[in-house]
Sequence to fold (252 residues):
Amino acid sequence: MKGSGNTKNSSQGAGSSSVLNELKETIKQQAAEIELLKKAAKQAGPSSSISKEPSHGHGPPASSDVDAYSSTPFYRIAFDRVGWLSVFLASLSLTALVMSSFEHTLSKHIELAFFVPLLIGHGGNTGGQTVGTVLSALSTGSITTSDAPRIIAKESMSGLLVGSFLGLVVGLVSHYTLGISAHVSTIIFFALPMISIVASSLASVIPFVCIRVGINPANVSGPAMTTFVDVGGLIGYFVIAQRVFMLFDVKF
Fold:
């Protein structure tokens, strides 16, 4: 009887030890899984916090914003935009005032008028690229309003470099290929970098200003940039023209 009792006790001890070992293994596996979950939670933490931010230039657009736009009727979109577009349309009338102010110079040097559409178009294209880039970076959370000084400086230097290159090319081509006078070609050489840096600077500043004052930058940035660049670019163009005419001793 003792032998059988010892055998039974030993079998029970072996069984309990195996169960204990299995329990220890299970605990180890669960501890390892918990550690993995903690690491995954830490990695997912910043991205999840970004997605919770409002889509006003501080993070990616929330799904509710996308759904709201998809369900917004066309007349509501038009109503939201027509106010700002009316303001900037009225502001664009200043370009006519600028042109009339330099009418005497234009009448003496008709070549200057040839390049007005080119300069205005280039300013709009340069500013449009910058606005699109900044708004896209803001919407995805790549940059925030705290990055404004760095982004503005970078875009301004980029505009200066692009404008200098294009000014050199257009100035040389207009003089040696199109037969434009040397003084007007020189004006174009200096005017393109000026308009490029003005457009890039304004286009990078306006989205941050809109966010700061609580205005939707998607509705305002593009029209505001176009208005300011057109008016400011024309004024700068004619001021440069007068300085170059003085340098070449040409009457204006």
Notes: Residues 44-63 have pLDDT under 50 and may be disordered. The radius of gyration is 33 Å. The CA atoms of residues 29 and 220 lie 56 Å apart. The first helix runs from residue 2 to 52.
